[in-house]
Amino acid sequence: MADPRTSGSALPRLARSRLPVPGVKRPPHAPDAGIVHLGLGNFHRAHQAVYTADALRHTEGPWGIRGVATGRGRRGAHPVIEGMSQQDELYTVLTLGQDSGPAAQVPGVHHRGLVAARQAPDVVAAIGSDTTRIVSLTVTEKGYSLAGDGSSLDLDDPAVRADLDGRGDPVTAIGFLVRGLQRRLRGHASPLTLLSCDNLLGNGERLRALVGEFIGALPAPERDDLQAYFTTSVSTPSTMVDRIAPATTDEHRALVARCFGVHDTVPVAAEPYRLWVLEDDFRASRPAWEQAGAVFTADVAPYELMKLRLLNGAHSLLAYFGLLRGLPRMDQAVADGPVGAAVRAAMTEEILPTLTVPDDVEGPAYVEELLRRFANPALGHRTAQVGSDGSLKIPVRWAGAIEENLRAGRVPPVLALGVAAYIRVVTGGPDAFDEAALGVVTDPATARLRKLAARAGGPAQAARILVDAGGFLPEHVAAHGEFTSLVAEYATALGTPRGIDAALSGALRTGH
Ligand SMILES: NC(=O)c1ccc[n+]([C@@H]2O[C@H](COP(=O)([O-])OP(=O)(O)OC[C@H]3O[C@@H](n4cnc5c(N)ncnc54)[C@H](O)[C@@H]3O)[C@@H](O)[C@H]2O)c1
Ligand SMILES: O=P(O)(O)OC[C@@H](O)[C@@H](O)[C@H](O)[C@H](O)CO
């Protein structure tokens, strides 16, 4: 791949002629960075940045974005920050549809980014600046420093404790936010909106609770004024975010080069579909995102729940079933007969009945639309990517639907098989699926779950132990004998060669 600094077709030059670049002035004339974004990953670059660029084409405003690469231990060069910096802070969003050829857009809204692990004081200063009106986040489920209960702040995490102590630079996202709020309070006390764009249930309330807990754990003199400022001047609206944006591959880079003549080292691929539903509670103004198609509503919760249970819930099922069937990509998983049939059955018969879908949505049509979106072969979305971090995703994606089925007196067979498949993938690793061909599934709980499983005499007992003590399902689900027995039965099947095939048809026969 050509080096964009030396190539005649580097993004900065070509973007201005061959790709649609919005009329946003970039540095040194960029609009003020009214937004600081923690977690400069693919999703933010394909979603919020695109909405912001499109909104700015309609209504100007101080809505440049200063992206921050967060996460621990990233002290060296950060590929996205470096790549964007070498391209005048530009990158391509490659839209890959099923019925049309690739399209490209260059958002062009970013200022020079920051690497949190190296430039922590600058990050605190950016959050603390009076030109900053919104601090948004896509830091993954891992980035919220959640305790084992999945909702409170992990005060046992040494990084959280160090951030509370405050003698060193912040490390955690919550630590950065609170130290930035403190800077604002001491400087100008202007209002701010904290905007979580992660796939968390009630992401705004969750973020509010975590920041509040952190502030509450500070020593009294620091705590009280900050608490008052946080209560009166900082809002945390909830959002439902949706656009499938897989990890970037060399194929995506090659496609950008072939179709658009642009050598972009850090493009991001995404499906054409996008949706953003937000609570309109912005303390210090916001971009006119509605002009870019965002939907503002008083209550995001029904949209969020529907999306997390149906889209993300089905995504995780496809990922684990797909891995065990040897399928590297999500579109292959949904096109696979047994996997596709089981996931469709789970969506329509185990998940949809647990939801009150918003008035403007038709449940079965939404399911069909999701299955069509998952089938997009152009995205190259990996089952191993979606299957990673299951210990943090399952509580959000499956636990509620399982609970509601059990409450209604019904054991949901495909979701039970999903739990057994997750256990098999996370504890079995290379014994369960071909890591060399499919990719490694990472999960912060892997070592702990493998240790628990190692105590068991076999897969069924391991499944019982993990359902009970794995920390990814609520206690009353774990205490449900019939559910746990079904998971254990499936775990036994999955321990045998091609056991997934029999288990999938068994799950379909059992309940559907
Ligand atoms: N990619 C999608 O299709 C999609 C769609 C909707 C929502 N989301 C949400 O966006 C999140 C990020 O997805 P992505 O595709 O941008 O992933 P990504 O891997 O491209 O980026 C993840 C970002 O999170 C940061 N991060 C990871 N661990 C962290 C930690 N412990 N503390 C702080 N920061 C941490 C990383 O530095 C990185 O900037 C998802 O977890 C999800 O909540 C993603
Ligand atoms: O991004 P993750 O890893 O939290 O989850 C993987 C996918 O399920 C998710 O990113 C979906 O693609 C997305 O939520 C669609 O809007």
TrEMBL record:
Keywords: Oxidoreductase. Pfam families: Mannitol_dh, Mannitol_dh_C. This is Mannitol dehydrogenase family protein. SUPFAM superfamilies: 6-phosphogluconate dehydrogenase C-terminal domain-like, NAD(P)-binding Rossmann-fold domains. Residues 1-27 are annotated as: Disordered. Residues 34-290 form the Mannitol dehydrogenase N-terminal domain. The keyword Oxidoreductase applies. Residues 299-455 form the Mannitol dehydrogenase C-terminal domain. It comes from the Bacteria. It catalyses: D-mannitol 1-phosphate + NAD(+) = beta-D-fructose 6-phosphate + NADH + H(+). InterPro entries: 6-PGluconate_DH-like_C_sf (IPR008927), 6PGD_dom2 (IPR013328), Mannitol_DH (IPR000669), Mannitol_DH/Oxidoreductase (IPR050988), Mannitol_DH_C (IPR013118), Mannitol_DH_N (IPR013131), NAD(P)-bd_dom_sf (IPR036291).
